[in-house]
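For reproducibility, we list the full input for the NAX complex.
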Amino acid sequence: MRRIDRNAQSLGISGLELMESAGSALSMVARGYHAKTILILCGSGNNGGDGMVAARHLAGEAEVFVLWYDSKNLTPLAACQAERMKNCSVHKIRFRCREEVSSHASLFSRADLIIDALLGTGGRGTVREPIRTCIELANQTPAPILSVDLPSPGIMPDKVCAFHRAKTEGAEVYEIGIPILAEIATGPGDLLLMHDRKRDAHKGAGGEVLVIGGGPYQGAPWLSGLAALRAGADIVRIVTPHYLPEPDLIHIPVMGNSISTPDLDTIIPLCERSDVVLSGPGLGTRSHDVITAIASHIKKGVFDADSLKNPLPQAEESLFTPHAGEFERITGIKPEATPRVRAQSIKQAGLPGTVLLKGPVDVVSDGTKVRFNLTGTPAMTTGGTGDVLAGVCAALMVDLPAFEAACIGAYVTGRAGEQITGIYGCGMTARDLLTAIPQVLFGRTSEGE
Ligand SMILES: NC(=O)C1=CN([C@@H]2O[C@H](COP(=O)(O)OP(=O)(O)OC[C@H]3O[C@@H](n4cnc5c(N)ncnc54)[C@H](O)[C@@H]3O)[C@@H](O)[C@H]2O)[C@@H](O)CC1
Ligand SMILES: [K+]
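The corresponding predicted structure, in tokenized form, follows.
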């Protein structure tokens, strides 16, 4: 929900607007109880904010008491709603500790309806005071309890009024105006799935990525490697026949002009020690037997470009990043133009992993979940952008499952491309993309902030 919420904001629907719709829907459900006296219990998060909006909507229609937690952790949206509620004809009673809640026990017994806006999707762990006392007192009354979004842990609701999606069985669901694109398309909300690097993180905490490629196309694996570094990998090794002077990357030479089976003794131990292995960029057509031989030694594998051939290599967890032609080569299915049909083709193909099918709209699917990526520009048809994308996905897969890594990788690379196109237009190179990647991925420049 946080992902969808954040994506909705980037599509122009603010959190405050969503909260207003949620509180309005809640007040409508509350009206169905024809209660003369309503007690609204509000926590310090946005769930509490929803309750305060409903209080504003119900003011004048019933006697409304709002018992709200005036915590130092009040979220900005909840604080805004507390401010907005000030001038409404509702009884506003703040509490800061358990004793203050207990001193208002009579309010609980007076109420014909209790609205539980204490904890929603942000609740974590055992319920702490003073919220716990609110829940206990609510459960002791005969009044029906209407829970907002999901029941606060331990409370016994009569009904649950959920927003956009049911989070518990039996909840009544109300739409709050979230655009469908916020859910089915990638967006800045997807970045919330990334884990923050701990302050005391040791060298290598960003993961070790191995890139296997090069041969006929010398630059491709180096571009992927640099992209992996820009997307947060700590150590990136490049197994490739041709050395390029890139001091940030570790070159692992091979015996001939292309990667071949005598190199397996060098490559297999590296595959086993790496968090993620990306194979294929610039590899050419002569090294597929090496890729199939190493696949079973790979924990997490990104298979790109020339490694996308049958027999299809398969790691413990695999991400395949084909364009339309490569997808047809490995599945025999020619992807239709529309993203929706493309998603169906991925499901039909039943590949053993997640697929990122590149195109004007990228489609990411593991056969069950589907997400569309709309970022990017026509200028990104320039050579090497696919190598960058694969490198970004590989670095993200250190910490994330393949599906999430592919969604974020596609989104971020496309956004970076949009920024660079704004500067260089069709004269952009794949290399130009590299500097924009960390800005989008780790900076605070994404839209809607
Ligand atoms: N699209 C959305 O996601 C929308 C969400 N909305 C509401 O926002 C809610 C989520 O808001 P938040 O993320 O602010 O989270 P919550 O409002 O569920 O709770 C977070 C607050 O509760 C405290 N808390 C967490 N665990 C606790 C525990 N075990 N004991 C005591 N206190 C605890 C936290 O310190 C924090 O202040 C949703 O459930 C929904 O009601 C709506 O405003 C509409 C839009
Ligand atoms: K609740």
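Confidence is low (pLDDT under 50) at residues 445-449. The two ends are 17 Å apart (CA to CA). Both points were considered when choosing residues for closer inspection.
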